[in-house]
Design brief:
The complex is a heterotetramer of chains A (682), B (101), C (172) and D (523). Chain A is mostly helical. Helices cover 72% and strands 3% of the residues of chain A. Chain A folds into two domains: 573 residues, no CATH class; 89 residues, no CATH class. The longest helix of chain A is centred in the middle third of the chain and has 51 residues. Chain A is globular, with a radius of gyration of 32 Å. The N terminus of chain A is likely disordered. By secondary structure, chain B is mainly alpha-helical. In chain B, 77% of the residues lie in helices and 0% in strands. In chain B, helix 1 packs antiparallel against helix 2 and helix 2 runs antiparallel to helix 3. Chain C is mainly alpha-helical and 172 residues long. In chain C, helix 2 runs antiparallel to helix 3 and helix 3 runs antiparallel to helix 4. The mean pLDDT of chain C is 83. The chains are: A mainly alpha (682), B mainly alpha (101), C mainly alpha (172), D mainly alpha (523). At the B-C interface, helix 1, helix 2 and helix 3 of B face helix 2, helix 3, helix 4, helix 6 and helix 7 of C.
Chain lengths: 682, 101, 172, 523
């Protein structure tokens, strides 16, 4: 506690003392393992259980939550660092291991995944009631959480990769949960493939770093970083860029953001978990894990410029998109992308704590918002806000919790979002003054503008959903308690979550995160900048006020005002900056269509032409020269050889007429010829 | 008497027989032509026998054998022709191509 | 050799006559549109050859030829012609193939080959006259050639049985 | 046990199926169940012996040939009955014996037309002998004989039990049956390659002093530099042709889609699971150790061809309308990763190749099993006509999804290690190889994994998901039966086990590969 006050002033932040963590840390490998094992149990035995497998899923999350919080408490007392590994293969000089790391960063993630997961799993019991694949849903859901835990617990990059892709798989399964409808499958495939493309970056980054260092352990890699390994320094820029591309995919940064809004095709609990604790946080987590690598000027510091630029584009452009969505879940989805932009900017600005703090608080209020959205959708049987309105009265608890989440997201004092967003602004400002230069200054303004946009679209969502006249057909009603209790729980965390890191008063969170086995490099700790905090708050209030002015003022004409279209800007936003269209027209359609068909066509017709040159004589050669792409190929040559033999046989068999007399004629003629030949040649 | 004159005559008969074998459609006529060829052979044999003054008379003996074989051949040949005719109502060779695969 | 001398020899005159007769008969055998005529012409040709055998002193062979061929074989042929209802009308197309020229060519080539070979080999070699007795032939046949003789008799027997088997109606 | 270790064990593995084939041949055609029982018994014996070999295998000396024997055989040309297994061939041998047993179990009552289990089993057993023999042979002549022995049964399997659809081909006037075309194409292609391979073997024999066909002695000679220069280049090219056709490497792959599509289910399975491995195994066992210098010269070429195969195969998959043909083209891509691993000439890359071979064997084998079972039920392979399979047959659909995930290289399942390690190897190839080529290959290969994921998911979407079309909705399609599950469960377990604990394979291969690389390339 005392260390917290000291840290407030300090630049480099070292925990007072680190301990191994004892039994609790040694058995931390159970954290990812229990959900994975229970996942199999649900698949094989779930249907026979009284709650159809839900109890196993809930048990796994309960376990993770308790374990995570226990570690968190321990870590708060004394910083824990523990690392364990089991070798699962040796290849040449490389060792592949299953490892688990217990340090401030991973403990924070365990706790977040566990707590948010527990809330969402509980909620899902009510939400998914009556689903035809109820058991399967919980199996995949458990896999989702388990895979994320594999990812965050990994002590080496290969395991990280395993978890990374398993998260992608689980998201594919869950987004496409209602697979009877092909548009859902398309969304699932889009999510998987977009991530897979970004994973190319991750794979290459992992390979570059791992091969250069000679080990895939984070410990060894970061040791090499702190030792200033020159071989690693040479490839650091490309490795850093490649890893960041991987992070961009999972954390939905522009231009890989396209999958996330489409991922709303999945059931709402999935969106909630995906946007809060698992999946999208993976990219930020990776940047946090590799933080010293990006922080050091010797290594990938140059990439930070790119990180901050990409992050700022994402945070502002995607925030604007949230303004024009009618689908409530999509509003929240774009909001997530925008908030992830904040986190990325923070990482790019070298603010380790600030970025992860926002991840921490965002997990609570975004998880909450999605649960509320699910509750509303559950009640009105529509995703669209044009079917909602006036739900404040029939759904009081949903309204209250949604409001709490919205205010937290908008960054209103003293809710969770205020503290974390303020820290991000402060750290960008710090970066602008410490080497970030002009870019950081511009980004600071973008971030402040982003805060306005955030507040503005959340106000819109609140007013369109809960105020005005009800527009839908169904009869809305409050959700059952199994759904509202988790919402209330998360609402509580959204309200108080920020107090774990109040600069100048209580910097426990900074302490927790700083428990890393190796020095974190030169990064500045959080500091409070009262002017910036006030600016952020004022901007957010202005956003709310503007939103109120537009959507609240008159319930009767609320809808007309929402239909107001800003010229030029609106079409751009409506088509999501045409990015999706660009991908479709320039990338997926050509590959699926003409390119694939061309390749298939060449297989039948061109390759054969090449082999032709080897196999056949002058004829084939001439054809390759004449019309290399012509419809002649090895098939033709092979067939022609067979056909030629066939033809010759056809001709010869005509001589076999079965007519004795022709044979006799040939006999005598032949005899004569023989004699003549004999005479001539002797 | 020269040897050649008999041989040339026999060659002529033989060739006529060949022509007949090749050109006739009716099986019986083909058999007739074969008889012609066999006769030519017999003439040759006897002529050689006379020319060589062979004490063993092998020329004549072989001519006799040829006659005997010819008789056997005609018997079997006609039997086949009769049978084929019975099965197919025709003794035309060009309608027979059972040896074709 | 002198063609005049050769032609003035009486035996040779006889030979020429017989030969012309035989050739004419043989040609009719292979060209006659009437099957029965063809068979009868064969009789003529065979008769000619029997005469030649006599000229060469092969009495027994000559008479055997007459008996076996003209007596038995031709009768057999005539039966065959009747049984198979071979056409006896004057319709040459049905009896002959349409492509005569290749056959004629082959036949001519055969003749040319055989004849030229014979002439080239024997040139002017003459045949001494002389008659061999049937008794001598019998002696040889039953001493030196007895095994082939017996073999031929088996062939005949086999042909006999074969003919019966083939030509008899379905045994039912 | 002494006898087992001294060569009898391996001979048992190789020749038990042959004995079984003889016995089945003696049975009357009508006694089908007896024929099946005998076939199963003998292949199980072979599998049992190979498992025993694994148990008795000395994992501390995987680089040495174990259970070997070296007997005089054809003394006139100095060819010897030299057999043995090391860590590289052992996993492949086990895979081969296992797949044979599963093939027989699967076909227990899934006989393709025109039925006749007796002949089919005889061919299958013959095939098993050829496959097992190739993996244990340490003499070039012996290797060649087993290598070719495989050809004939497969030819007949495709030609007799294959697909009878008629197709029209460029160059042919008449329509031909797919099975006839495919079987002849398969046969001629492979024979074309192996003719060159034989020439290469003979050239090595005559160049070596004293003349020998022994792989180990040839490898020693090769590493001393006996085959350097133009001679070696020609020999490598000849061997390359022989093995590359079998792998198959782009652009010699065109026989593969036809053969896989036309073959009966079991034929496709064995073709994909084992036969393709004969080629890549030949590269590792023969080409690299005997001709190390030429291997280094050719490595960039192989790498480039492998990468082309990866991209090309994946793109071609996207255009397929036939389920089996799609899986067949996916083999082209996956074997591309195997060849990319081999071309790096490093221990990492070759290890990746071996695990890639094993993984491809179980995964693609499984995919072909599933495709066969689906064809058995739907009587069509046309992707456009399928759909909603998950609804109609949840078990088969679920397994298809699982296997497709494994095939696209999902971490945690078998396919991942081969792909990832091959890319890892190509980042850091053997010293002296062009870094530009290999690192570009790495990037292209990584992009290939995206395409692989693309077509696999696309296939799943169209086959498995969505609502069943009207064509099938009324039908009562029975889900997987006992025999099918019995054949599939071991594969699923293997896919999972290798994925989670790759030491199962790497434990055997690692030292053997390191030693091979050290001897051949001094690395």
């Amino acid at each position: 506690m005392i260390a917290g006050f000291i840290a407030y002033a300090g630049e480099i932040h070292e925990p007072a003392h680190l301990v191994d963590g004892g039994v609790l840390a040694q058995y931390a490998w159970l954290i990812p393992l229990v959900p994975l094992v229970l996942m199999f149990a649900i698949v094989f035995f779930g249907k026979r259980l009284p709650y159809k497998g839900w109890e196993l899923a809930e048990a796994s999350m309960l376990f993770v939550a308790i374990y995570g919080v226990a570690l968190l408490v321990m870590n708060a007392n004394e910083g824990i660092t523990h690392e364990g590994s089991i070798e699962i293969a040796r290849i040449g000089s490389y060792t592949i291991e299953w490892g688990w790391v217990v340090d401030g960063l991973s403990i924070m993630m365990y706790a977040v995944v566990g707590v948010v997961g527990l809330a969402v799993f509980t909620y899902a019991k009510g939400y998914m009631e009556g689903d035809s694949r109820y058991t399967w849903f919980f199996a995949a859901f458990t896999l989702f959480a388990g895979a994320m835990l594999v990812l965050v617990s990994s002590a080496n990059m290969i395991q990280l990769l395993v978890g990374w892709e398993l998260v992608g798989l689980a998201s594919y399964l869950l987004i496409g949960h209602y697979w009877e409808d092909h548009s859902n499958n398309a969304a699932a495939i889009k999510a998987f493939l977009t991530n897979k493309i970004a994973d190319v970056g991750l794979v290459i980054g992992v390979i570059i770093v791992g091969v250069t260092v000679g080990s895939f352990r984070f410990g060894d890699i970061l040791s090499a970083v702190s030792a200033g390994d020159s071989a690693l320094a040479q490839v650091a820029f490309w490795a850093g860029l490649a890893l960041f591309i991987g992070a961009m995919g999972k954390s939905a940064q522009f231009p890989f953001h396209v999958w996330l809004p489409d991922a709303m095709a999945g059931p709402t609990p999935v969106s909630s978990l995906m946007h809060a604790a698992t999946m999208v946080t993976a990219g930020v987590y990776l940047l946090g894990r590799m933080f010293p690598f990006y922080q050091s000027d010797l290594f990938a510091a140059d990439v930070k410029t790119w990180i901050i630029i990409i992050g700022s584009i994402t945070l502002f452009a995607m925030g604007l998109l949230a303004l024009v969505q009618d689908d409530l879940k999509r509003v929240l989805a774009y909001s997530t992308v925008s908030q992830l932009g904040y986190m990325t900017v923070a990482m790019g600005a070298g603010a380790y704590t600030a970025g992860l703090f926002h991840l921490f608080t965002h997990a609570f209020f975004k998880g909450l918002l999605f649960l509320c959205a699910g509750s509303v959708i559950h009640a009105v049987h529509s995703n669209n806000m044009s079917d909602m309105g006036g739900l404040r009265k029939p759904m009081p608890w949903t309204y209250r919790t949604f409001l709490a989440g919205s205010l937290a997201l908008a960054g209103i004092f003293p809710l969770a979002g205020f503290w974390s967003k303020d820290e991000i602004l402060a750290s960008i400002s710090y970066d602008a003054g410490h080497g970030g230069g002009a870019i950081a200054s511009v980004v600071l303004w973008i971030a402040i503008a982003g805060a306005f946009v955030t507040a503005f679209y959340m106000a819109r969502a609140v007013y369109l959903t809960f105020f005005g006249e009800y527009q839908g057909q169904a009869h809305p009603h409050e959700s059952p308690r199994v759904m509202t209790y988790p919402m209330i729980g998360l609402a509580g965390l959204s309200i108080v979550g920020g107090f774990v890191n109040v600069p100048g008063l209580f910097t426990g969170f900074t302490e927790w995160l700083a428990a890393r086995p190796l020095p974190m490099g030169d990064h500045h700790a959080e500091s409070i900048d009262f002017a910036l905090a006030a600016t952020g708050l004022l901007v957010a209030l202005a956003g709310i006020a503007a939103g109120t002015r537009v959507w609240r003022r008159d319930a009767a004409t609320q809808r007309e005002r929402d239909r107001f279209r800003v010229p030029l800007l609106y079409p751009l936003l409506e088509h999501r900056y045409f990015v999706d269209d660009l991908y479709r027209v320039a990338l997926t359609d050509p590959i699926k269509g003409p390119v694939a068909r061309f390749i298939d066509w060449t297989n039948t017709y061109v390759i054969d032409a090449v082999v032709n040159a080897f196999g056949a004589v002058a004829k084939g050669l001439a054809r390759v020269v004449y019309g290399g792409f012509d419809q002649r190929g090895i098939d033709f040559v092979v067939n022609a050889v067979a056909g030629g033999t066939n033809e010759a046989g056809e001709m010869l068999r005509r001589t076999t007429t079965g007519r004795v007399q022709q044979y006799a004629g040939a006999l005598f003629g032949g005899a004569v010829l023989l004699v003549v030949g004999l005479l001539i040649f002797t | 008497m020269l040897v050649s004159q008999f041989l040339v005559l026999a060659a002529l008969l033989f060739s006529i027989g060949v022509y007949g074998v090749l050109v006739r459609r009716n099986a019986v006529l083909v058999l007739l032509s074969i008889e012609l060829m066999l006769t030519a052979v017999s003439i040759n044999l006897v002529a050689f026998g006379a020319y060589l003054q062979d004490t063993l008379l092998s020329g004549q003996v072989f001519a006799l054998f040829v006659i005997t074989i010819a008789a056997a051949e005609v018997g079997i040949g006609l039997a086949i022709v009769v049978m084929i005719f019975r099965n197919r109502s025709s003794a035309n060779l060009d309608e027979l191509d059972l040896m074709r695969w | 050799m002198d063609w005049g001398d050769w032609l003035s020899n009486s035996q040779n005159i006889l030979f020429v006559v017989i030969a012309l007769l035989m050739v004419a008969a043989a040609v009719r055998v292979v060209t006659s549109p009437n099957v029965v005529h063809a068979a009868l012409m064969l009789v003529l040709a065979l008769g000619g050859s029997a005469a030649l055998f006599l000229m060469l002193g092969a009495e027994f062979v000559a008479w055997a030829l007459v008996l076996v061929y003209i007596g038995a074989v031709i009768v057999l042929f005539l039966f065959g012609i009747m049984i198979t209802r071979a056409p006896t009308g004057r319709d040459p197309v049905r009896l002959d193939h349409e492509r005569r020229w290749p056959a004629a060519l082959v036949a001519l080539a055969t003749f040319a080959t055989l004849a030229s070979a014979s002439v080239a080999a024997f040139e002017d070699e003459a045949i001494e006259g002389g008659v061999s007795s049937t008794g001598d032939l019998g002696d040889v046949l039953f001493s030196r050639f007895v095994i082939p003789f017996e073999a031929v008799s088996f062939v005949l027997l086999a042909a006999l049985i074969g003919g019966i088997v083939l030509a008899r109606k379905d045994p039912g | 046990m002494e006898m087992f270790d001294g060569g009898w064990g391996l001979s048992l593995i190789v020749f038990l199926p042959l004995v079984g084939a003889g016995l089945v041949l003696l049975l009357p055609k009508r006694q089908e169940s007896a024929a099946k029982a005998i076939a199963l018994l003998f292949t199980l014996g072979s599998l049992g012996a190979s498992v025993l070999a694994v148990v008795r295998f000395d994992f501390d000396a995987t680089e040495q040939f174990q259970f070997g024997t070296d007997l005089s055989w054809i003394s006139a040309i100095g060819s010897r009955y030299h057999i043995g297994i090391d860590g590289i061939s052992m996993p492949l041998l086990v895979l081969s014996t296992l797949m044979t047993v599963l093939a027989i179990v699967y076909s227990w009552n899934h006989w393709p037309e025109p039925h006749n289990p007796k002949a089919f089993l005889v061919l299958l057993l013959l095939l098993a002998t050829g496959m097992n023999g190739t993996f244990v042979a340490l003499d070039l002549v012996l290797f060649f004989i087993f290598f070719e022995l495989v050809l004939l049964p497969m030819y007949f399997m495709i030609g007799i039990w294959g697909d009878r659809t008629k197709i029209r081909l460029p160059g042919f006037r008449r329509e031909v049956e797919t099975r006839l075309y495919a079987s002849i194409k398969f046969f001629l292609f492979t024979l074309f390659g192996s003719a060159f391979m034989l020439l290469g073997f003979l050239a090595l024999y005559f160049k070596s002093d004293p003349h020998t066909f022994d792989m180990a002695r040839l490898a020693e000679a090769g590493q001393m530099g006996l085959f350097d220069g133009t001679f070696g280049a020609w020999v490598f090219a000849a061997l390359f042709l022989g093995f590359a056709v079998k792998v198959p490497m782009w652009p010699l792959h065109t026989w593969l889609p036809d053969a896989h599509t036309a073959a009966p289910t079991v034929g496709s399975v064995l073709l994909a699971a084992i036969l393709l491995k004969l080629g890549s195994y030949g590269f590792i066992r023969i080409s690299l150790p005997i001709l190390p210098q030429q291997a280094q010269d050719w490595a960039p070429v192989i790498a480039v061809l492998a990468v082309i195969a990866i991209i090309y195969g994946s793109l071609a998959c996207l255009a397929q309308t036939d389920l089996k043909r799609l899986i067949a083209f996916s083999s082209v891509g996956h074997m591309g990763f195997v060849m990319l691993g081999i071309s790096t000439l490093t221990d990492v890359g070759i290890n990746a190749a071996v695990i890639g071979m094993v993984a491809h064997g179980v995964i693609t084998g499984m995919l072909f099993f599933l495709a066969g079972s689906m064809q058995h039920r739907y009587h069509t392979r046309e992707i456009a006509r399928l759909g909603g399979n998950m609804k109609l047959m949840p078990v088969i659909g679920g397994l298809l999804a699982f296997t497709a995930m494994a095939s696209l290289g999902l971490p945690g399942l078998a396919g991942f290690w081969g792909e990832f390690m091959a890319l890892l190897g190509s980042f850091n190839p053997l010293d002296g190889l062009s870094l530009t080529v290999f690192r570009s290959a790495m990037v292209a290969g990584a992009i290939g994994t995206v395409l692989t994921a693309g077509y696999m998911l696309w296939m799943l979407q169209r086959v498995n998901l969505g609502e069943p079309s009207d064509e099938w909705s009324g039908h009562d399609l029975h889900d997987a039966d006992g025999f099918e599950l019995a054949a599939w469960v071991p594969l699923v377990v293997a896919i999972f086990a290798i994925g989670v604990f790759p030491k199962i394979v790497f434990g055997a291969t690692n030292d053997a590969v390191s030693e091979l690389v050290r001897r051949a390339f001094g690395g």
